[in-house]
Amino acid sequence: MAKIKDLPETIPVFPLTGALLLPRARLPLHIFEPRYLAMIEDCMKTPHRLIGMIQQREVPDGQEKRLQSIGCAGRLTAFSETEDGRYMITLTGTSRFRAKAEVSGFTPYRRAEISWAGFERDLGNDESDPGFKRDWFLDLLSRYFTALELSTDWDSLKDAEDELLINSLSMLCPFDAEDKQALLEAPSLSTRRETLVTLMEFALRGGDEDMMQ
């Protein structure tokens, strides 16, 4: 699916706090709740096999959390079932979307009417980041990982293309839901990288302050 007109106007949405999906990236998920098992089964019957990953936001005095305005749809590209009936799936990011309204109905999971307008670039080829200073960035990343006692395959990171590197880190680093939303909404790969740098530097400053106390 390479054009906006090919995409559906209503999709199932999976409001999973802290889970971030970006265009062309892959997100593995473990599905076990009955309502989401039903969502996967229904999704596989559609020609597009799309599920919208979206964050929730708190509403003052609200009993139910509202959906954020922007999410990212992923195509179900891998599926396996465990012996006890759980699903292991992979979503491959297709395009971000804007949630217009929730759709009421008889499904146990949530659905939303959406607009793809404004995210046409998501359906294109990989983005590049002309201002990306890789050595400096990897040095910052190393300090960030050390501070949080995280490990990674540094050889793979050094060889990864700009988009794969920046988007994978945006998805995997342990930022809070609001920060993940900011990374999702970044209008370009360069802006996402700048946001990622800001978040890592902020975490490092906080860590330094803690160590000084």
Give a written overview of the molecule.
Residues 11-204 form the Lon N-terminal domain. The protein has helices at residues 34-43, 134-148, 154-159, 162-172, 177-185, 189-212, and strands at residues 10-15, 26-31, 50-54, 56-57, 66-67, 70-81, 87-103, 111-115. The chain is globular and about 50 Å long. The protein is an alpha+beta fold. The protein has a 5-stranded mixed barrel. α2 packs across α6 and α4 (162-172) crosses α6 (189-212). The protein has 6 helices and 8 strands, in the order ββαββββββααααα. A hairpin with an 8-residue loop joins β4 (56-57) and β5.
List the main descriptive attributes of the protein structure presented here.
213 residues; alpha+beta; Archaeosine Trna-guanine Transglycosylase, Chain: A, domain 4; 2 domains; 5-stranded mixed β-barrel; two-stranded antiparallel sheet; Lon N-terminal domain-containing protein; PUA-like_sf; Lon_prtase_N; Lon_prtase_N_sf
What's the short version?
The chain has helices spanning 34-43, 134-148, 154-159, 162-172, 177-185, 189-212, and strands spanning 10-15, 26-31, 50-54, 56-57, 66-67, 70-81, 87-103, 111-115. With 213 residues, the protein is of the alpha+beta class. A 5-stranded mixed barrel has the order 1-3-6-7-8. Strands 4-5 form a two-stranded antiparallel ribbon.
